[in-house]
Amino acid sequence: MRKLLIGLLLAAACTSRTAEVPQTSQEAGPRPALAAFLAAVRSSDLQAMSGVWGDKNGPVRDSRKMSRDDMEHRELIMMCYFRHDKYRILGESPAPDNERVFQVELTKGTLRRTTNFYLTQGGDRWYVRFADMDPVKDLCADKK
After folding, report:
1. Candidate CATH numbers 3.40.309.10, 3.10.450.50, 3.30.420.40, 3.90.280.10; the one for domain 26-141
2. Which residues contact 23 (CB under 8 A, 6 or more apart)?
3. What predicted TM-score, i.e. pTM, was given to this entire model?
């Protein structure tokens, strides 16, 4: 009887189950979208970046507003300007058209710069619609 019980426990432990976990509103909110965008920048992942950069109509990669070459060129420019070693969200506030604006401090080496990221909701997801490059221009020029 004991061997049977141990055998059943081992069999149960060795089986795997896959369960779909629905996204909560927090996981699908603007903060995770910003984190995904900045992670894509940091890892130089154009594909991931094009999935979280967009507007109320969805991701830029699915729109017909620009060619793929133009999209990738713009992504490379943004990667240069927003490349960072770490980031810190300093604040979040509402913006027109139900958008959210995040004040983000980017650190690259010894440089720290603060800029704004504007996020908008498209369907059930959030996208980085715009980010202000002017305050972080020297992060691109710095080769540290």
Report:
1. 3.10.450.50
2. none
3. 0.78
Q: Contact at 8 Å (CB) between 136 and 77?
A: no
Which residues on neighbouring strands pair with residue 50, listed in sequence order? none
Structure tokens at 10: 């081992």
C-alpha distances (whole Å) from 17 to each of 9, 10, 20 are 15, 15, 10
pLDDT of amino acid 13: 43
The Cα–Cα gap between 131 and 73 comes to 16
Give DSSP secondary structure letters for 50-110. Answer: HHHBEETTEEGGGSSSS-HHHHHHHHHHHHHHH--SEEEEEEEEEEGGGEEEEEEEEEETT
